[in-house]
Amino acid sequence: MSDFFLTQALIRDFDPDFAAPLFDHSLLIVGLGGNGCHLALAAVRMGFRSVVGIDCDVVSASNLSRQVLYVREDVGRSKADVAAESLARHNLRSEIQTHHLDILRERDRFGELVAQAGLVFVVLDQPGTTFFALDACHALRKPAVSGGTCVLSGLGARVGWMAAGQRPCLNCALALHPSVAEWTKFYRYDGGAPKEKGPGFAALEDRFALPGGHPSTYPSACLGSNLMMAVGLNVLLGRHDMPRTFELSVLGLTLEGRPLAQRANCPTCGGG
């Protein structure tokens, strides 16, 4: 074994499961923003076999205070392209792929990437794309960890997880009334089939969408993403007795674990 992982390998003396096979997985990171950058960086530093990143955005100046893979000279460039270059400089043994990909326009391609992953991290800003990505993970029976910075204060992080095909799924966290069925229909994965937006979709999307520029700070992204990685390690180890969701407060220095209730009308796992 390379000296790169000497101290990491010593952990197996205390926990025998924390050994080389744990890192023989492919991680898919959906979203290369504040949380996604930290997750990708952690994944290549820890030596996971394959690290795949997806984003369809470009680097903006407001990203630079939290998104550690980008610098001033990268503003205006594709996040996927810059992330590939930056991760290559940090890489120790991982196979790295990044894709400039709109997951809603290329649903079938996204499904292929999910199917190839051992664990999926969903770290997207918008409720619709998050719902879609989690729906795809559940349909393809892939374990997933999702989360992000609290959009109200920017001073907290929320994290949830689901094992392959698990009920309740992470979309059970959304209380979706039948009146928003058109929104739900568009964001269902449904085998990667293309979808058309119905006449009432725009009004519903305006209600759910989160405009850019919501509060955020480096500790929220850094601590939240590392909590996600810790949860992901436990999921890969098959340790599923932990709380299904976590809330971390940066200034209050609290970490709360909470259960996740099954929704009978969940469009993803409840048969709705």
How would you describe the overall organization of this protein?
The chain is α/β, with parallel strands linked by helices and 272 residues long. The protein has 8 helices and 8 strands, in the order αβαβαβαβαββαααββ. It has an 8-stranded mixed β-sheet, sandwiched between helices. A hairpin with a 6-residue loop joins strand 5 and strand 6. Helix 2 packs across helix 8. The longest helix is centred in the last third of the chain and has 19 residues. The chain is globular. The termini are far apart. The model has no long low-confidence stretch (mean pLDDT 94).
Report Rg: 18 Å
Structural class: alpha/beta
Q: Choose one word for the global shape.
A: globular
What is the overall number of helices? Answer: 8
**Roughly what is the average pLDDT, rounded to an integer?**
94
DSSP helix fraction:
25-40%
Structure characteristics:
single chain, alpha/beta, 8 helices, 16% strand
